[in-house]
Amino acid sequence: MTRPDGRSPHDIRPITAEFDDLARVDGSARFGFGSTPSALASFTGPIEVRLAAENPSRLSLDVVVRPLSGIPGTREKKTGSVLGSVLKQSLVMEANPRTAVVLVVQSLTDEGSLASMINASTMACMASASVPMRGVVCAVDVGMTDDDFIVDPSPEEKQHTSASGCFAFHIQGLQRVECIWTNWTGSGFDEQELLQARTIARESVINVWKTLKETVARREKLPLEAEDEMEI
Amino acid sequence: MRPPSPSIPEKEFVFDALKHSLRLDGRLPLEMRTPALSFGTELGCVECSLGKTRVLANIDAKMVKPTPERPFEGMLSIHSEISPMAASEYEIGRPSEEEVTITRMLDKVLRRSDALDKESLCIIAGQRVWHLRLTLHFLADAGNLLDCACMAGIVALKHFRRPEVEVVGDEVTVHPPTERAPVPLAIHHTPFCISFAFFPDPSTQPVIDPSLLEQRLSAGLMSVALNAQRELCVVQKLGGVPLAPDDLLAYINVAVAKAKELDVIVEEALKKDWSGRHVEVR
Q1: Which residue of A182, B60, B221, B250 lies most exposed, with the fewest beta carbons within 10 A?
Q2: Bridge partners, A61 (sequence order)
Q3: Would the CB atoms of A104 and B137 count as touching at under 8 Å?
Q4: B79 and chain A: CB distance < 8 Å anywhere?
Q5: CB under 8 Å to B232, separation ≥6 — which residues?
Q6: Is 0.90 topped by the overall pTM?
Q7: R_g over Cα of chain A
Q8: C-alpha distances in Å from residue B150, one per residue of A131, A171, B99
Q9: If you average pLDDT over every residue of chain B, what do you get?
Q10: Is A54 within 8 Å of chain B by CB?
C-alpha cells in the first residue's frame, strides 16, 4: 500500500530533532515528525518549590502545555497531566526531594502532536541533565486503515483511519523497550488489533530512539557505540 | 520563584563600566542587538530574537459577529502570557509586573495606534467580521522582552495573509488558499518599540535595548514606540528617574534612527521569506 507521500506503511517521516539552547532554562529542544518541528519543550530544575507543592520524599513535577494560538484550556491541562505521568516513569523523582522541576511544552503547530511533545520533553530532560533518568521515553503515532496499520500518519491520513493513537515507550537500551502509555481510540477494533498496533509501534519507536541518540551524540561530539547495531 | 537580585560585585562592576560607556556584552550604549526573524511554514507565524531574548508570535483568524457598538470593524485580540519557559521566575496565573507592562504596551502599540486597519476586516457590516487573534509566546527572557514582543507582533501582522472572501448579497464565500491567493492585512504603519534603561547615577548615559542584568539594575525605563515616518505612538516612562526635556527629545531622535534601521531589516526579511514561498499561478 503506498501512502500519499510515497512512504511505505511502517515508515516514519524524516525526524527534525534539535536542541534549542534557550537562555533561561536548563534544557530545551524541538521535535517534529517531518521537516518542521511541532513541539518545543523546556526543562528547568531542580529549583525552589512552592510551599504548597513541596513533597518531603520526591520532587514535584510541574508541566505547562501551551497551544500555538489562544489561551491554554482543558485540553492542554489534560495533555499536561499525560506528559507528567509518562515522564515520571523515567525521571527518578526520589533523587531530589523538596524541590520542583518545571517542564513547559509549546506547540508549534495548530493541531499539536502528542508524540512530538513526548519526544521533545524527553530531549529537554536529557539536555538539562539535572534530574537522573531511568531510561528514554519515546513515542510514535499509529493509525489503522482498512488495509493496514500505518505509522506516523499525517493529519490528512488520520482522517481516513478508523482508529488511531499514540504509543509511548520507556526504552532502557535495545533489549528493554516497554510500552507505558497509549491513547488508542476508534471504532471497530478488537484486542488483537490493538496488540498488533502496539507491536508495530514498538518496532518504529526504535528509529525515533536512534535518531535521538544520534542527535545527542552529535551535540556532545561523542562517537556512537557499535553495540547499538545489535538486533532487538 | 522570585528572581535573585544581582550581587553587589555585579552591580558595582556594571555601574563602573557604564560610567566609561562600556557594556558587558561589548555593545555601544546606543547600539541594539541585531534582531533576527525566522518565519514558520504557516503565514503569520514568526519568531523574533534580540540576542538571546526570543519571542514567538502567531496569528490566526476566524469570522465572527461584530459587537453592536462597532458593527463595521473587525477585532484584534492579543494574548501575551509569560510562561516559565521565558525564565523560572514567571508563573502561570500570577502576572508579574513585567507581564502587565508588556500587555499594556502591546495594547497601545498594536491596537490603539491603529497600525491595523480594523475596518478592512469587515465582511458584512453588522453581521460578519474577521476576528484576528495574536498570540505571543515568550521563549527566553534575556532582557528587553518588550521590544522583542512588539517587533514580533507587528511582523506577524505584516506576514499574515487572510483568506479571500467574496460577498454576493448576503452570501459569503470564503476561498481557501488553494483556490485564491490569500490577502495581506491592511497595515497603516509599522510601529517599533525602543527601550532605554536609565541608571541611578545621573551622569551615566542611558542604554538602548538593555540586557537582563542592565534591566534589573536600572533605576528607570523609558519605552518609545514610533514608526519610521517619525510618528510617535507611545512614550512610556517607568521608575521616576528625572529627565530634562532636551534630553528626552534627543533620545527620541535616537529612537527614530533605530526605528528606520529596524524598518529596513524587517522589510528585507519579509521580502526574502515571501520570495522563498511557492506561489503557484494558474
Answers
A1: B250
A2: A101
A3: no
A4: yes
A5: B224, B225, B226, B252
A6: yes
A7: 18
A8: 36, 43, 13
A9: 92
A10: no
Residue B213 burial (CB count, 10 A): 18
Strand partners, B49: B36, B54
User: Is the Cβ of B52 closer than 8 Å to some Cβ of chain A?
Assistant: yes
Mean pLDDT for the stretch of residues B223-235: 93
* B75-79 and B128-140 beta bridge pairing: parallel
Q: Determine whether the interchain pair A25/B85 forms a contact, defined as Cβ–Cβ distance below 8 Å.
A: yes
Cα–Cα distance, A69 to A48 (Å, whole number): 30
H-state helical runs in B114-196: 145-159
Min distance B88 CA to chain A CA atoms (Å): 7
Helix axes A114-128, A74-88, angle to 10 degrees: 50
Cell numbers for B83: 510562561
The residue type of B47 is E
Strands A136-144 and A60-66: unpaired
Q: B56 and A106 in contact by Cβ < 8 A?
A: yes
Mean pLDDT by 10 residues, chain A (232 residues): 84 93 94 94 92 91 94 94 95 94 95 93 95 95 89 90 93 92 90 92 94 92 66 43
